[in-house]
């Protein structure tokens, strides 16, 4: 698959995969991957465990070499270049800090490996500067075990960025942090990326993390790229059910397409309700899956309250969960099965809410929802 | 009050154990070392430094022990480390258990019998005969310090292999990936990461082997043929043959003192090295 990003920003590639395939004793971890990583971007590989995202990162780092195809860094095929000769650095999932060295020795480790050797004072200066960058200025002489989880993560970060890599690889760096620290760390990472201008490549299974941090997200499944795009593109125009399910929540229903025109499609749902949707260009299937976000739908008590041009599906409320800024309704919809509708606080206040067991109309405004391509 | 009494009560078994098993025998040896040999052998009470003044008579035994024990320890270390590394890092899990068992199997036979096997190997029809075929005549191996060295290295190798194996086994392989990621070629990563982090195993194994070698008597008796003898052999001789218990005790005390000094130096070394703590294990 190719990039689908619409707004092109410095399309110069710092790295890439060309037909890259990785097979582990018969199991395909990466299957003919084509991808360009742009200089200076924050790219995330997102997917469930076993989808091949970590293999992508490890092929960039040089811990794995592709069974077929090429891995490019700066336009050069590096498939046969060992990890220690690649201009990339990694923040490991559990940090992999050297327990027999101090914080400063850990951070300076990469600089001490340079040949010809760097002068000692230059190493010390760079280490001090980088420790200050990650807000650990006074922690240089400390031992690794004296550092908290969050601090260890900063050390791991400093140990990587002090080498000024072409690409910084991050392997689930937040996995071991608690939720509050994670949000803080995400913002810090973004600030750091902006100030350093280094390309960041993140691997995560956490969609919120990917949405919050990435310029582009590459969603992976079963060793293949499911879709690449900006977080908003993936959210608004998921190409497949897999992507729609993975990024945010989506109601997926079956529909028969009755007409298509100018990027829109008319469809008849399983229960006979007619809706108007955004269409996937070039699609010609008569029956397709339709995705619609819970917050794009609305609820009305009486049929008379359904606005002109809005389709309505009758449904019964089965669960109501108040979540502060919005209320989450689970409904049993006529002929469609379970649906979810998120009602924002204001609309909830205006309507007075809907009790469990109440009969309501799910409002489906024109142009809401999207025809999905078939999953491969 | 009751709490401290309860604590005292609970500590009593351990205290008694120490007194009975450790202090009492040592005290007996210490007292004997200041006594005299009675006319019919054994021990006669007394207070004299004569036995200690006599120690130089056993100089050769101390010299042999104090050279062959450290040399044997180092030789065992040099052989054991690559073996342990191979077992912990290189061997596939499928073969690991079997190869580990093979390291222990010799322990199932008495060291006495295994040492006799070496008599044949080092004797005239063994290795020297082989050397003769390539033109090296008149090589004598048996009853030399070399034979004793071979014997002790062979006998104590497993004790060195296992602590090192354990240290290497629990070494986090991701540290080596991290080192490679930071620009370290594999051989340098071994020196900078693997070796320092396996030092606890190296030090444990070395101490274990060294202490046991200092008290060794069986292997020098068999492979040294009475020409290369350890302090252990001197003790066997003094207590069982010439029945000079007082002098034997003095020799034993001298050995204990030497061991204490060595271990003192050793623990200094460990402290210097051992900035690394086991519990950091990396998580």
Layout: helices, strands, pairs:
The complex is a heterodimer of chains A (376) and B (283).
Chain A: E1 13-24, E2 27-38, E3 42-46, H1 53-61, E4 68-73, E5 76-77, E6 88-91, H2 103-112, H3 120-133, H4 149-161, E7 167-171, H5 179-196, E8 199-204, H6 207-213, E9 216-221, E10 224-229, H7 231-236, H8 241-246, E11 251-261, E12 264-269, E13 274-278, E14 287-292, E15 298-300, E16 311-322, E17 326-333, E18 337-344, H9 345-351, E19 359-364, E20 370-371
Parallel strand pairs in A: 3-8, 3-9, 6-7, 7-8
Antiparallel strand pairs in A: 1-2, 1-4, 4-5, 9-10, 11-12, 11-14, 12-13, 14-20, 15-19, 16-17, 16-19, 17-18
Chain B: H1 2-33, H2 50-53, H3 59-90, H4 93-104, H5 111-122, H6 127-133, H7 145-169, H8 173-181, H9 186-197, H10 199-214, H11 218-223, H12 231-241, H13 245-273
Helix pairs in contact in B: 1-13, 3-7, 3-10, 3-12, 7-10, 8-9, 10-13, 12-13
Structural commentary:
The complex is a heterodimer of chains A (376) and B (283). In chain A, helix 2 packs across helix 3 (120-133). Chain A has two domains: 13-241, Rossmann fold (3-Layer(aba) Sandwich), CATH 3.40.50.300; 249-371, RNA polymerase II/Efflux pump adaptor protein, barrel-sandwich hybrid domain (OB fold (Dihydrolipoamide Acetyltransferase, E2P), Beta Barrel), CATH 2.40.50. Chain A starts with 12 loop residues before the first strand and ends in a 5-residue tail after the last strand. Chain A is built from nine helices and 20 strands. Chain A has 376 residues and is an alpha+beta fold. With 283 residues, chain B is mostly helical. Mean pLDDT of chain B is 89; it is low at 275-283. Chain B has helices spanning 2-33, 50-53, 59-90, 93-104, 111-122, 127-133, 145-169, 173-181, 186-197, 199-214, 218-223, 231-241, 245-273. Chain B is built from 13 helices and no strands. The radius of gyration of chain B is 24 Å and the shape is globular. Classes of the chains: A alpha+beta (376), B mainly alpha (283). Chain A binds chain B through residues 61-63, 82-85, 88-90, 92, 94, 96-100, 109-110, 113-114, 143-145, 159-160, 163, and chain B through 172, 174-175, 177-186, 188, 193, 196-197, 275-277, 279-283.
């Amino acid at each position: 698959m190719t990039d689908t990003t619409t707004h092109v920003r410095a399309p110069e590639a710092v790295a890439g995969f060309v037909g890259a395939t990785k097979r582990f004793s018969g199991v395909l971890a990466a299957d003919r991957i084509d991808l360009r990583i742009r200089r200076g971007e924050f790219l995330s590989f997102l997917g469930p465990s076993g989808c091949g995202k970590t293999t992508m990162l490890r092929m960039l780092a040089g811990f794995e070499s592709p069974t077929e195809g090429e891995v490019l860094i700066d336009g050069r095929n590096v498939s046969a270049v060992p990890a220690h000769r690649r201009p990339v650095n990694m923040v490991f999932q559990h940090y992999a800090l050297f327990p027999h060295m101090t914080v400063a020795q850990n951070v300076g480790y990469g600089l001490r490996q340079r040949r010809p050797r760097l002068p000692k004072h230059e190493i010390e200066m760079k280490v001090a500067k980088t420790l200050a960058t990650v807000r650990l200025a006074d922690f240089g002489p400390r031992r690794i075990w004296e550092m908290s989880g969050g601090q260890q993560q900063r050390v791991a970060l400093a140990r990587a960025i002090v080498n000024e890599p072409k690409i910084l690889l991050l392997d689930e760096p937040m996995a071991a942090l608690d939720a509050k620290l994670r949000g803080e760390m995400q913002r810090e990472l973004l600030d750091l990326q902006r100030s350093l201008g280094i390309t960041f490549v993140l691997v995560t299974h956490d969609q919120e993390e990917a949405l919050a941090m990435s310029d582009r997200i590459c969603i992976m499944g079963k060793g293949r790229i499911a879709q690449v795009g900006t977080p908003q593109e993936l959210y608004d125009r998921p190409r497949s059910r897999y992507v729609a399910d993975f990024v945010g929540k989506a109601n997926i229903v079956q529909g028969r397409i009755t007409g298509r025109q100018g990027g829109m499609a008319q469809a008849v749902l399983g229960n006979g309700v007619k809706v108007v949707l955004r269409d996937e260009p070039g699609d010609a299937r008569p029956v397709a899956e339709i995705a619609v976000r819970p917050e794009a739908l609305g609820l009305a008590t009486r049929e008379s309250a359904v606005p002109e041009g809005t389709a309505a599906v009758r449904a019964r409320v089965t669960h109501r969960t108040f979540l502060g800024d919005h209320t989450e309704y689970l409904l049993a919809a006529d002929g469609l099965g379970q649906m979810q509708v998120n009602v924002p606080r204001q609309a909830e206040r205006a309507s007075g809410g809907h009790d469990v067991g109440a009969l309501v109309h799910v409002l489906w405004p024109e142009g809401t929802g999207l025809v999905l391509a078939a999953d491969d | 009050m009751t709490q401290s009494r309860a604590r005292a009560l609970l500590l009593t078994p351990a205290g008694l154990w120490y007194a009975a098993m450790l202090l009492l025998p040592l005290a007996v040896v210490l007292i004997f070392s200041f006594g005299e040999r009675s006319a019919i052998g054994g021990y006669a009470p007394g207070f004299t430094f004569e036995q200690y003044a006599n120690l130089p008579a056993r100089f050769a035994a101390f010299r042999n022990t104090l050279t062959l024990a450290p040399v044997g320890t180092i030789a065992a270390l040099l052989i054991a480390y690559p073996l342990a590394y191979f077992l912990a890092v290189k061997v596939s899990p499928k073969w690991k258990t079997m190869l580990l068992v093979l390291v222990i199997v010799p322990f199932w036979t008495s060291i006495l019998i295994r040492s006799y096997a070496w008599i044949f190997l080092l004797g005239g029809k063994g290795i020297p005969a082989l050397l003769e075929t390539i033109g090296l005549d008149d090589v004598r191996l048996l009853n030399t310090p070399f034979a004793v060295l071979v014997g002790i290295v062979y006998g104590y190798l497993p004790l060195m292999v296992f602590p090192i194996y354990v240290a290497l086994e629990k070494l986090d392989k991701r540290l080596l990936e991290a080192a490679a990621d930071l620009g370290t070629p594999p051989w340098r990563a071994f020196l900078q990461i693997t070796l320092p982090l396996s030092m606890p195993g190296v030090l444990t194994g070395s101490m274990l082997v060294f202490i046991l070698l200092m008290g060794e008597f069986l292997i020098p008796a068999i492979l040294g043929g009475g020409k290369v003898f350890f302090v252990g052999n001197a003790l066997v001789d003094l207590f069982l043959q010439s029945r000079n218990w007082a002098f034997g005790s003095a020799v034993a005390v001298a050995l204990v003192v030497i061991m204490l000094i060595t271990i003192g130096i050793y623990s200094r070394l460990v402290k210097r090295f051992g900035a690394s703590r086991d519990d950091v294990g990396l998580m």
